[in-house]
Amino acid sequence: MTEENPTTVAPGMQATLRYTLALEDGTVVETTEGFDPLTFTVGDGTLIEGLEAVVRGLAPGDRECLQIDPREGFGYPDVGNIHFVERDRFPDDVDPQPGLIVGFSVPNGEEVPGTILDIQGDQVRVDFNHPLAGHTLTFDVEVVAVEPAPEDA
């Protein structure tokens, strides 16, 4: 009796992963260690394309540890995403300090995170780039399970 090849990670499949995402210096920015693994449908936007590309073709039990270049990760910082915001536009309960990440409402109702860079008088300089933009990331991933995605109801 021959064993059937296990199902591999492919678009439209439901994959369950254990993973750790770390910066160049080893700082862990996200992990499932100590938590439930991540289950998602491949191609649904849960993972950015560069991370998803790492797991495509892997089968349950496979493990990879790869570096993701900023081009395939969260891109490079864009100086056009750094803006000055009037200090009085912050809620009373928010004390703007460099390094603080604050949610800002945009016209379509979504909330966008911005990292405070510095304060210059009554102006607060805020970086709206993704916090991981410009970083080479290490993605250590193990495929736990792969199965057909559930049918949409």
TrEMBL record:
Keywords: Isomerase, Rotamase. Its EC number is 5.2.1.8. Residues 12-110 form the PPIase FKBP-type domain. GO terms for molecular function: peptidyl-prolyl cis-trans isomerase activity. InterPro entries: PPIase_dom_sf (IPR046357), PPIase_FKBP_dom (IPR001179), SlpA/SlyD-like_ins_sf (IPR048261). Pfam families: FKBP_C. It catalyses: [protein]-peptidylproline (omega=180) = [protein]-peptidylproline (omega=0). Belongs to the FKBP-type PPIase family. This is Peptidyl-prolyl cis-trans isomerase.
